[in-house]
Amino acid sequence: MGFFDALLGRSTPKKANLDDLFALPPAVLTLEAATGMRPTGTAAVAFREVEGGAFAQVEQESRALIAKDPDCTVRQENDGFGYTWQVISEAQANTSNLVTNVHAVNSSLENQGFGPMLLCSALYLADAEGTRAALIYLYKRGTFYPFVQTGPHRRDTALEIQIRGIVSGELTVEPDLSKWSPVWDAPGMTGQ
Fold first, then answer.
1. Alpha-carbon distances, residue 5 vs 8, 14, 98, 174 (angstroms)
2. Helix (H, G, I), strand (E, B) or coil at 168
3. N or C: which end of the chain has fewer CB within 10 A?
4. Do 61 and 150 form a contact (C-beta atoms < 8 A)?
């Protein structure tokens, strides 16, 4: 941070550290114990697609890597907002396995110079009543936040704040609530 940034109260956001994703499994256990929310077996990586053979090759390589895992499947979806989601499903809902595969997708894109195209990664959870939540990792900020969609363009901010309190000891939670962007109907959010 420079002198003028300090003087004007600007700060430099934390850079992404993909290894932060490996804090998710213990955070999910803590969340499950406190709320009953369990992993759904689905996670996803969202990125802005770029035209060109190099990007297509990296996408294909990451899908092929995940496809080697007999417990995982991977599909690609466009969300209508200009982002592509690689959606990973794990038959046993094994959070560690999901996180490893999400890390592989992010790393593949980052290592080939496509890091700026990464938007976020999401790990999905649900409780016995069917309430669905996501723990979102913001690539550009290197932080997490919870998102709970309760209907078409409706969210449960009270539950999001509760989840923040539960996982904040294990995850670097985004302090700026205005950065907690909704991921309306994201693949995995609606049970698909």
1. 5, 15, 39, 20
2. coil
3. N
4. no
45: Cα separation from own chain's centroid = 6
What lies within 8 Å, CB to CB, of 2 at 6+ separation is none
**Does the pTM exceed 0.85?**
yes
Task: Kindly give the confidence (pLDDT) of every residue in the chain, 192 residues in length, as a single tens digit, with 9 standing for 90 and above.
Answer: 555 555 555 555 456 688 899 999 999 999 999 999 999 999 999 988 777 777 777 777 777 777 788 888 888 888 888 888 989 999 888 999 999 999 988 888 888 888 888 999 999 999 999 899 999 999 999 999 999 999 889 999 999 999 999 999 999 999 999 999 999 989 888 765
Q: Which CATH architecture has domain 21-179?
A: 2-Layer Sandwich (3.30)
